[in-house]
Design goal:
Layout lengths: L5 H8 L2 H12 L4 E7 L3 H16 L3 E7 L5 H13 L5 E3 L6 H4 L18 H9 L3 H5 L7 H12 L8 E5 L6 H10 L3 E5 L5 H5 L4 E4 L17 E4 L3 E3 L2 E3 L4 H7 L2 E2 L6 H18 L3
Parallel strand pairs: 1-2, 1-3, 4-5, 4-6, 6-7, 7-10
Antiparallel strand pairs: 8-9
Helix pairs in contact: 1-12, 2-12, 8-9, 8-12
Length: about 290
């Protein structure tokens, strides 16, 4: 079974323009998104522009602030502070990766949690990891990382049971792997976090669900998986002149594994969740 994400993404996105219009009428202006994007990573910057265009299509007013290897760290932190304090800015998006000297700053400590639509601020991340149950996750006043949330939504959309299941998460980044592992735990799954020092064939052989966010084409081998396992391929890699995930979909299908495709799986849902968070950032304050 192919666990496609475009249908779910469409369901999430359809009401957003009307919701944004309602907010606009109440506050007398459009919802305003400020995005800080690094021009040093071409792929990430192009994707950011697509996110901004998608936000404009549902009626948001947007502005991109560009940073690069020459941007002083103090100026970057000052920009985050200014946007967080600006009452005319409703949502802030800061995609990673950032230039190393900017990523090393404490900018996330100054990112207003109610505007932090990708759940990366210290407050939002801290609140997430204090939760023990899904009810507590749903009651959070801020946001959780969009990709991690999208994986949960995709699994639920395709009626994949999580409680009691063994799940292997490949990748331990603060943006995807670790928050996803915590969300899965709050859904009562038993989770194993895998990384470059993990014996992957051994780690995934008994897993009911494997969520791969390693960013390495061909890393996850179908032969390691048990038949009828579920693979959520989160990575987007450019390999052999095509976009691919961490696993070979043809090999997964031959193995009898249920999988999300790349593209067309987690990606569209992540963007839809992000757009919904942009609207929710102001709805919550009305």
């Amino acid at each position: 079974m192919i666990l496609e994400g475009r249908t779910l993404a469409k369901q999430i996105r359809e009401p957003l323009a009307n919701r944004a219009q309602v907010v606009c009428q109440k506050i007398g202006r459009p919802i305003r998104l400020a995005a800080i994007g690094s021009t040093e990573d071409y792929g990430a910057y192009v994707y950011l522009k697509k996110e901004v265009e998608a936000a404009q299509k549902i009626g948001l007013q947007t502005q991109i602030f560009e940073v690069n290897n020459q941007t002083p760290a103090d100026d970057f932190v000052a920009l985050v502070k200014r946007l967080s304090q600006d009452k005319e800015v409703d949502a802030i998006l800061i995609p990673r990766p950032l230039p190393a000297h900017l990523a090393a700053t404490d900018y996330a400590a100054y990112l207003a949690p109610q505007k932090d639509v990708d759940g990366m601020s210290n407050v939002n991340m801290g609140n997430l990891f204090l939760c023990k149950t899904w009810a507590e996750i749903e009651a959070l006043p801020g946001f959780v990382p969009c990709t991690a949330a999208a994986v949960i939504k995709l699994l639920e959309f395709h009626h994949i049971e999580l409680a009691g299941k063994e799940v292997a998460v490949i990748g331990r980044s603060s943006t995807v792997g670790r928050p996803l592992a915590h969300l899965l735990t709050c859904k009562n799954a038993t989770v194993k976090i895998c990384h470059r020092h993990t014996d992957l064939p051994r780690a995934v052989k008994d897993a009911d669900i494997v969520c791969s966010a390693a960013g390495t084409a061909g890393l996850l081998q179908a032969a390691w998986l048990k038949p009828k396992a579920v693979v959520i391929d989160i990575s987007t890699n450019w390999s052999n002149n095509q976009l691919t995930g961490d696993a070979d979909p043809a090999a997964l299908a031959q193995r009898g594994v249920h999988y999300s495709p790349v593209p067309g799986g987690v990606g569209p849902v992540t963007l839809a969740v992000l757009l919904e968070n942009m609207v929710r950032s102001k709805e919550r304050l009305l």
